[in-house]
Design brief:
This protein is of the alpha/beta class. Helices cover about 35% and strands about 25% of the residues. The chain has a single domain, classed as Metallo-beta-lactamase, Chain A (4-Layer Sandwich), CATH 3.60.15.10. About 40% of the residues are buried.
Length: about 280
């Protein structure tokens, strides 16, 4: 769907099967920025390229126009289709320096962050052509540009992107969604990144990987709710982890969510952070 004059959103569905055989339906967003050429923000899981190419054709653009892929981070549901798109279209791939290793070596990523169905989600390794740092400016022709904002916490190499002049903020997975599974590796960095995003003035549209577009002042309310959610999780983990992890899930409103490896990784991050995060 078209979000602004230059930005289009693609909702890409996929499934995860837990170790106990439970199938979990998920989705992730990829974003197309239509300028003189086309910039793709995240690529979804393996085989998502056909969804992306079909959408581009329906909206009057040719997939060969993709000149740059910018990855908000290195996780499989964001880079799964990246190798295929790069191979087919010859475009450049950009990512934060702390994301490069996992993008170029997915086997290492799986060893360090094992998740169900990893091999089905990832399309293989991909060479990073442009290594990004906080504050970098990516020029997209004469009018559009992306400012790189390092927002670690969900992962070390997570970035958000601010599109000018439309003031569209692509946040990747930097903003935890209240009521959804919390997935991050560093609690203090998550809070710090959220506060960094909260300070950006006049954001018109927030585009995350796991939620519908949010506009205007609602952007800042969503960030505030995410901060409160992380604090609530922190309090629940410290208070109830000695009772049971199921009790922690119940306290944060996720009673029926299975205790999967990613949730445990998040809870362990809270256990490592004993101090007050307010």
């Amino acid at each position: 769907m078209q979000i602004t004059e230059h930005v289009h959103a693609l909702k890409i569905p996929f499934s995860l099967t837990t170790d106990s055989g439970i199938v979990v339906e998920r989705f992730v967003y990829s974003y197309l920025i239509y300028g003189k050429d086309v910039c793709l923000v995240d690529c979804g899981v393996a085989s998502s390229e056909q969804i992306i190419f079909d959408y581009m054709k329906r909206t009057g653009r040719d997939p060969v126009e993709i000149s740059l892929i910018v990855q908000t981070h290195s996780h499989a549901d964001h880079i799964g289709a990246t190798p295929a798109i790069k191979a087919l279209k010859g475009c450049e791939v950009a990512g934060h320096r702390n994301a490069v290793e996992w993008m170029e070596d997915p086997d290492l990523q799986f060893r360090e962050r094992p998740i169900p169905n990893f091999s089905n989600l990832i399309g293989g390794p991909v060479k990073v052509d442009r290594v990004l740092e906080d504050g970098d400016l990516i020029e997209l022709g004469e009018v559009l540009s992306l400012k790189v904002i390092h927002t670690p916490g969900h992962s070390e190499g997570s970035i958000s992107l601010l599109l000018s002049p439309e003031n569209v903020l692509f946040s990747g997975d930097a903003i935890p969604l209240v009521g959804d599974i919390p997935i991050y590796d560093d609690v203090e960095e998550v809070i710090s990144s959220l506060r960094k995003l909260r300070e950006i003035e006049d954001v018109k549209v927030l585009l995350s990987s796991w939620d519908y577009p949010v506009e205007g002042y609602e952007v800042y309310k969503e960030i505030d709710k995410a901060i409160d959610y992380v604090k609530k999780i922190h309090e629940a983990v410290l208070e109830y982890s000695s009772v049971s992890w199921e009790r922690v899930l119940e306290e944060i409103g996720l009673k029926d969510v299975p205790l999967n490896p990613l949730v445990m990784r998040t809870f362990e991050a809270h256990l490592r952070t004993k101090k007050d995060i307010s």
